[in-house]
Design goal:
The complex is a heterodimer. By secondary structure, chain A is α/β, with parallel strands linked by helices. Chain A is 36% helix and 21% strand. Chain A has 20 helices and 23 strands. An eight-stranded mixed beta sheet of chain A has the order 7-6-5-2-4-3-16-9, sandwiched between helices. A seven-stranded mixed beta sheet of chain A has the order 11-10-12-13-15-14-21, with helices on both faces. The termini of chain A are far apart. Chain B has helices at residues 29-43, 78-88, 100-106, 108-116, 162-168, 182-194, 216-219, 221-227, 280-287, 308-322, 328-332; strands spanning 50-54, 69-72, 93-99, 122-127, 173-178, 199-204, 228-230, 238-239, 245-250, 253-258, 295-302, 338-340. The termini of chain B are far apart. The chains are: A alpha/beta, B alpha/beta. At the A-B interface, helix 1, strand 9, helix 9, helix 11 and helix 12 of A face strand 1, strand 2, helix 2, helix 4 and helix 10 of B. Strand 17 (462-464) of chain A pairs parallel with strand 2 (69-72) of chain B, so a sheet runs across the interface.
Chain lengths: 613, 341
C-alpha cells in the first residue's frame, strides 16, 4: 500500500462517460449525492443522446453525466478535472472537455482494435501523442470487475454490468469519499437480489482498493472543500422536479386542486412524470392525446376552477399557440411551462437553448399578451413555478414559465422551504349570488376580472374565444369595444409590474460593463462576472427572471452603464426585446447556439474584449 | 359521479338565455336547442351544475343560447376542453356540441380519444355534412361526388360514418336522431343523459342554406317510414309503413326481409340489444343506409362500463389512502435530505 498525500481543492468537475446503458447517470448521481452528504455544494448535468440505445460503442451512443462539487457552486462547470471514459467512443467525443493537465481514466480492456475503429480511431491513441496534455490512467476495469465478482457471477455479461461501480470506486478513492451511501443505495435498490447487491459492493471496493494499493493515480488524494451555505435542511433536486414541486406547492397555497394536462416531450416529460406520482396531494393529471388537448384540457379545468397547468417544450408550445390565445381572451389563469430545447422543428431535443423567447412573447395571433417569467437555476425552478402560478391565479392571465433543458435536467442543492413561509395565493373568486357579477367586470386597480366557478350559485355565464363586450362579457364585434378590450388585456399584464420586486444588480454601480442575462445562464454568467471582479475588473451583472412585464426599474439600471452586453443562448431575442423597450440605449450582444451552456472562459474572453475596446 | 340535484322544480325557462338565437330560419339547430332546453329541467340537476362546451361552427354557438355555465372554445377542441372541465370538477354534467367538421375533421383526434377513454360527457354531433359557418365547403361526412365550394367537380374523399367511428373508437354509447323529429330526439337525449360515460348522439341536421335536404332520402315524409328503422331495446327490428319489413341476420350480414313472405315471421327477426358488448351487430346497424337498407335510429349501442372519471376518482382515493406523503411539507422533506448547520 502506498501512502497518498491529501491536497485541498475549492472545487472539481468530474465527468462520467460511456455507452448509454453503461450506467453513467447512476454512477454520476451516486458520486454527487455522496459529495452532497459529505458537505460539498453540488451541481450536475446529464448529457445523453436522443437515441435510447444507439449502436454499441459508437459516438452516437455516448451518454455522460457531469458533476461539479465544491465550496460554492454556480453551475455544473465547463471543462472537467477528471474524465472517466468507459469505452473509446466516449473518450474520443469527450476528450475536448478535459482541462489541460486533467486526469483521464479509461477502461483499458475496451481499447481493442474493432472497438477503436467503431469509435473512429485510425490507430491506438495510446501509442501516439493524443494524450500528451493529460494524465491518463489505463485501468483494466472489465477484467478486474469480473475477477471481483467471480464467486457470484460466472457469466461474463452479468459480471461486466458492474463495471461502472469499479470506476465509481476509483473516483471515491481519488476524492476521499466514504462508500456507505452507495452501499445503502444498492441495498435498497436491489433488495430482492442480494447477489447484485454483493457483486456491486465488491466491485466498488475493488475499484477503491485498486487505487489505494497501486500507483496508478497521481501521488495524492483530493479533499474538496465543504460548502459554506446558509443553515438549513437541504436536498439535491433537478430543475424539472423543482418545477413540478413548485406547481404542487402553489396549488396547495391557493387551496385549489392542481390540474396538469400534458403530452410527453423531451426534455419536459419529467414534469408530467413527477406530478403524476402525487395524486395523494390531489394532483389531477391528464396525459392527453396531443399537445393541443393538453392545453385545452387545462383551459377547461381552469374554467371549472382548478389551478391549471400544461408542460411542454418548444415544438409543443407552437402547437399550443392558438389555445394560449383562447386563455388570453377568456382571461383564465393558466400556467404554461416550456422547457426550451434546440430548435427550430425537432431541432436538438436533448440539448439546451433559449430560443423560444420570441415564441413566448409574441407567438400567437392577435394582440395576445401573456405574463412571461424564466427560472435561472435548477433549484429556483421551484420558486419560479410557484411565482408563475401565483401571477396566473391572481391576475387571471395565462403565464408562461421558461426553463430549459440545462436547468430541467441539471441538479443542484435545494434548501428545503417550509410551506408556511411561502406566500398565500389569493385568486379573485366571485361571490355566489352576487347580483352585480359580470364576467368581464374588472378590478379598477389591477384590471383583473373575477373567477366564477361552475357550480357556484347565481353566477352562470358563458365565455369563449370571441371578443367580449366590456363588463358584461357577451359576444361583441363592436370596433371601439375591441380596441378597448385589447388595451385592457395588455394593460392588465403591464400592471403586474406594479406588484413585482425591482431588478437587482450584482457588482459595482459604476462598473465599466454591465452584463445582462436571463433564464438558465445565471450560474455561468455569475461565475464569469465574479471571477473578473476578483481579477480587478469593474463589471456588474443583472439577470432577469421577470420578462413580461419587465421590472419597473429596468430602464433606470440600464441607463447607468456605458457598455451593456446581453448574453443568451440564441441569436439575440432578449437583446432585441430590450432594444424594442429602450430604444435610445446601445446594447452589445454575445450569443451561442450550439445546444450547450456558456463556458465561463468564453464569457470572460468576450467581456475582456469589450472592456478593452 | 354524484351531481347535486335542484331543490326546486326547474322549467325550460330556467335554461333559456338572454341571447338572441342567430341561426338561420329553418336551421335544424333550433330543434336540437328546443330538445335540450326541454330535457335539462327533467334531468333535475341544479342549473349551476350543467356545463355546456363547444368548439367552432354554427352548432358551436349553442352554449350562448343555454343559460348554464358555458364555454365556447376553439375549432375542434370542445372534447379536450370538456375533458378538463369534467376531470377538474366531476360533479358537473358536461355537454358538448359539435358539428361534423369540428368533431370529425379538425377535432377528430379529440373525438376518438374522449370516446376511447369513456369520459363521462354527453356529446351531440350535429351532422349536416357541410361546413356551414364558412359557407359551404365539403366536410368529412359529405357524400362522395357532391358539388360544394371546394369540390366544384365533385368530392372524391370517402366519407366518415360517425357511428362507425364511435364504435371503432371503442365507444360504449351511440345513438342517432333527426332534427325534425323532436319527440324521438328528446328520447335519445334523455337516454344519453342517463348514460354514464362518453355518450354520442349523431343528429342528422339540415343546413337550409348550404346543404339543404342532404338527409332527405331518409328524413322526408315520402321516404321516412320505409327508410327509418327505430330501434327499441329487446324489440324485433321492424319498419315500413305497414310494419311489414324487418332485419334478419343471414350468415354474417344483415338482410331486409318482408314479414309473411317466404315463411318469415316476426320471430325470425333480429331483436335489438344495445347492451351487448359485441360490436358486430351494432356496427352493421350503424352502417345501414338506403337504398338497400333503412337507416337505424335510436340507441344503437349502450354498454355499461366504468367511466374514466369513476376510475380516476377511485384511483385518487386509493393512492391518497396508501401514501405517506399527504402534504407538500411531507414531499419536500421526503427521500434523501441533510442538515447544514
Amino acid at each position: 500500500m502506498t501512502t497518498k498525500k491529501l491536497i485541498e481543492k475549492e472545487d472539481v468537475v468530474v465527468k462520467f462517460v460511456g455507452d448509454s446503458g453503461d450506467g453513467m447517470q447512476l454512477t454520476g448521481t451516486l458520486f454527487s449525492d455522496t459529495s452532497a452528504l459529505d458537505g460539498n455544494d453540488i451541481a450536475t448535468f446529464p448529457d445523453y443522446p436522443a437515441e435510447i440505445r444507439a449502436p454499441h460503442n459508437t459516438i452516437a451512443g455516448v451518454s455522460g453525466f457531469q458533476v461539479h462539487i465544491g465550496k460554492r457552486i454556480f453551475s455544473s462547470g465547463d471543462k472537467c478535472d477528471v474524465l472517466v471514459a468507459m469505452n473509446p467512443a466516449s473518450l474520443s467525443s469527450n476528450l475536448k472537455w478535459v482541462k489541460r493537465g486533467g486526469i483521464v481514466i479509461v477502461d483499458a480492456d475496451t481499447f481493442t482494435q474493432d472497438v477503436l475503429e467503431k469509435a473512429g480511431y485510425k490507430s491506438d491513441p495510446f501509442t501516439d501523442d493524443s494524450f500528451s496534455s493529460y494524465t491518463v490512467i489505463k485501468a483494466p476495469m472489465t477484467s478486474m470487475t469480473a475477477e471481483a465478482v467471480k464467486d457470484i457471477f460466472t457469466d461474463k455479461k452479468s459480471a461486466e454490468r458492474s463495471r461502472n461501480m469499479f470506476a465509481l470506486g476509483m473516483i471515491f478513492f481519488l476524492f476521499n469519499k466514504e462508500l456507505d451511501h452507495t452501499d445503502s443505495y444498492l441495498e435498497k435498490k436491489f433488495k430482492k437480489n442480494p447477489d447484485i447487491v454483493n457483486a456491486n459492493k465488491a466491485v466498488v471496493r475493488a475499484g477503491y482498493n485498486y487505487c489505494e494499493n497501486t500507483d496508478v493515480l497521481p501521488q495524492h488524494q483530493v479533499n474538496v472543500q465543504e460548502a459554506v451555505m446558509p443553515k438549513g435542511k437541504y436536498r439535491n433536486i433537478t430543475g424539472n422536479i423543482a418545477t413540478a414541486w413548485g406547481l404542487l406547492a402553489a396549488a396547495e397555497k391557493a387551496n385549489l386542486p392542481l390540474f396538469l394536462g400534458s403530452y410527453p416531450i423531451t426534455p419536459a416529460t419529467e414534469i408530467l412524470v413527477e406530478i403524476t406520482k402525487h395524486k395523494a396531494l390531489g394532483a389531477r393529471v391528464f396525459q392527453a392525446e396531443d399537445e393541443i388537448a393538453g392545453i385545452c384540457s387545462a383551459i377547461g379545468a381552469s374554467f371549472a376552477g382548478a389551478m391549471a397547468c400544461t408542460s411542454t417544450s418548444g415544438p409543443g408550445l407552437s402547437l399550443k399557440a392558438e389555445a394560449i390565445g383562447l386563455a388570453v381572451m377568456t382571461e383564465l389563469p393558466l400556467v404554461i411551462v416550456n422547457v426550451q430545447r434546440g430548435g427550430p422543428s425537432t431541432g436538438l431535443p436533448t440539448k439546451t437553448e433559449q430560443s423560444d423567447l420570441y415564441q413566448a412573447l409574441f407567438g400567437r395571433n392577435g394582440e395576445a399578451p401573456c405574463i412571461v417569467v424564466a427560472a435561472s437555476t435548477p433549484s429556483n425552478c421551484f420558486y419560479w413555478a410557484f411565482e408563475a402560478s401565483r401571477l396566473a391565479l391572481e391576475h387571471m392571465t395565462p403565464t408562461i414559465l421558461l426553463t430549459d433543458g440545462y436547468l430541467g435536467n441539471g441538479s443542484q442543492l435545494f434548501r428545503i422551504p417550509r410551506m408556511a413561509d411561502l406566500p398565500k395565493i389569493n385568486p379573485p373568486f366571485a361571490t355566489p349570488n352576487d347580483t352585480t357579477y359580470a364576467p368581464y367586470k374588472r378590478d379598477p386597480e389591477t384590471l383583473v376580472r373575477q373567477w366564477a366557478i361552475p357550480g357556484m350559485e347565481g353566477l352562470r355565464h358563458r365565455i369563449g374565444g370571441l371578443e367580449k363586450l366590456d363588463g358584461k362579457g357577451s359576444v361583441s364585434s363592436d370596433s371601439a369595444n375591441h380596441e378597448l378590450m385589447s388595451k385592457f388585456r395588455n394593460e392588465k399584464v403591464q400592471r403586474v409590474a406594479d406588484t413585482i420586486p425591482n431588478q437587482v444588480v450584482y457588482g459595482d454601480e459604476d462598473a465599466d460593463l454591465l452584463v445582462v442575462g436571463w433564464g438558465g445562464t445565471e450560474g455561468n454568467l455569475k461565475l464569469a462576472v465574479e471571477e473578473m471582479r476578483e481579477e480587478g475588473h469593474k463589471i456588474a451583472l443583472t439577470h432577469f427572471n421577470y420578462i413580461m412585464p419587465l421590472p419597473k426599474n429596468t430602464g433606470d439600471i440600464l441607463k447607468k452603464y456605458k457598455k451593456i452586453v446581453v448574453c443568451e443562448l440564441n441569436m439575440g431575442q432578449f437583446v432585441n426585446y430590450l432594444r424594442m423597450n429602450f430604444q435610445t440605449l446601445a446594447f452589445q450582444q454575445y450569443n451561442k447556439i450550439q445546444g450547450l451552456p456558456f463556458e465561463v472562459t468564453e464569457l470572460k474572453e468576450k467581456f475582456n474584449q469589450i472592456l478593452g475596446e | 359521479m354524484s351531481i347535486e340535484h335542484s331543490q326546486t322544480k326547474l322549467t325550460k325557462a330556467d335554461f333559456v338565455s338572454d341571447q338572441m338565437v342567430k341561426w338561420c330560419p329553418g336551421c335544424g339547430d333550433h330543434a336540437i336547442l328546443a330538445s335540450v332546453l326541454g330535457i335539462f329541467p327533467e334531468i333535475g340537476y341544479k342549473k349551476e351544475n350543467f356545463c355546456v362546451v363547444s368548439g367552432i361552427g354554427c352548432s358551436s354557438r349553442f352554449p350562448y343560447y343555454v343559460n348554464t355555465y358555458g364555454f365556447h372554445g376553439i375549432h375542434g377542441r370542445a372534447a379536450a376542453i370538456a375533458t378538463g372541465v369534467k376531470i377538474a370538477n366531476p360533479h358537473l354534467s358536461v355537454w358538448i356540441n359539435s358539428g361534423d367538421g369540428d368533431a370529425t375533421a379538425i377535432g377528430g383526434n379529440h373525438f376518438i380519444h374522449v370516446i376511447r377513454r369513456n369520459m363521462d360527457v354527453n356529446y351531440i354531433l350535429f351532422n349536416n355534412r357541410i361546413y356551414g359557418l364558412t359557407k359551404g365547403q365539403y366536410s368529412p361526412t359529405t357524400k362522395q361526388g357532391q358539388i360544394t365550394k371546394t369540390s366544384p367537380y365533385g368530392v372524391i374523399d370517402y366519407p366518415f360514418n360517425p357511428g362507425e367511428l364511435v364504435i371503432g373508437a371503442r365507444g360504449n354509447f351511440f345513438a342517432r336522431a333527426i332534427d325534425n323529429s323532436p319527440k324521438t330526439l328528446g328520447e335519445v337525449c334523455r337516454a344519453m343523459a342517463a348514460f354514464d360515460g362518453a355518450a354520442i348522439v349523431e343528429v342528422l341536421q339540415n343546413c337550409v342554406i348550404f346543404n339543404d335536404k342532404t338527409h332527405r332520402e331518409v328524413t322526408d315524409r315520402e321516404f321516412r317510414e320505409e327508410r327509418q328503422l327505430w330501434l327499441e331495446q329487446d324489440k324485433p327490428m321492424i319498419f315500413g309503413k305497414a310494419k311489414d319489413k324487418g332485419i334478419m341476420l343471414k350468415g354474417n350480414s344483415l338482410e331486409v326481409v318482408e314479414i309473411g313472405k317466404d315463411g318469415v315471421t316476426e320471430k325470425d327477426l333480429l331483436v335489438h340489444d344495445a347492451t351487448t358488448e359485441n360490436t358486430g351487430i351494432h356496427m352493421m346497424l350503424a352502417q345501414m343506409a338506403p337504398p338497400a337498407f333503412p337507416m337505424a335510429f335510436g340507441v344503437i349501442r349502450a354498454v355499461k362500463k366504468p367511466t374514466y372519471n369513476q376510475l380516476f376518482e377511485q384511483q385518487m382515493l386509493e393512492v391518497k389512502a396508501g401514501s405517506k406523503i399527504q402534504c407538500m411539507d411531507d414531499l419536500l422533506n421526503s427521500g434523501e435530505t441533510w442538515e447544514i448547520k
